Amino acid sequence: MAQIAEITVARRQVVEARMSLEQQLSEASSGILKAQIAERIELCRHHGKELDEMLMDLIQADPATARRFEVLTSAPGIGPVTATTLLVEMKELGSASAAEVAALAGLTPMNRDSGLLRGRKIIRGGRIAARNVLYMAATVAMRWNRDLAAFCARLRQAGKPFKVAITATMRKLIVLANTLLKEDQVWTPTPP
């Protein structure tokens, strides 16, 4: 698992470098600079593909990790990148309670109170890499998982801001992942 963690971090860094280079490319005006930046972007893409292949090989080499990966990726919204990040960042998945995994991912609203001041609740702390991939996973899951889409729609109809609704959906998704791993079963859609 240490090698998987190392490669996952390296992959994340390659993606961040590529995004930074793409931003530079959009602002560059010199032809030679644009060509050099484009070459580095292509190199980052190539390295990213190599790292993805290495990750899949390592995951498939260990039957227990391969099964956990299969269970996670069965849920709509959780793709290979999200599953790998969750396996690395949240080793407690499948053995912790719903409240514990939500807190570990930094998805538990915390009060911002001081003395007589009552502030709005915010999410903070937790494992930022897991929370970041859960955000994208939740946006995808809202499109492909009827239950999560209905849940988010109910929150929006109740007047909740989008950020509150997406955070609640992220929490539901991590709790779903935890439950699936705890029960060692792949996700099946609820009948209509």
TrEMBL record:
Residues 70-151 form the Transposase IS116/IS110/IS902 C-terminal domain. One of its GO terms (biological process) is DNA transposition. GO terms for molecular function: DNA binding; transposase activity. InterPro entries: Transpos_IS110 (IPR047650), Transposase_20 (IPR003346). It holds the Pfam family Transposase_20. PANTHER family: TRANSPOSASE, TRANSPOSASE FOR INSERTION SEQUENCE ELEMENT IS1111A. This is Transposase IS116/IS110/IS902 family protein.
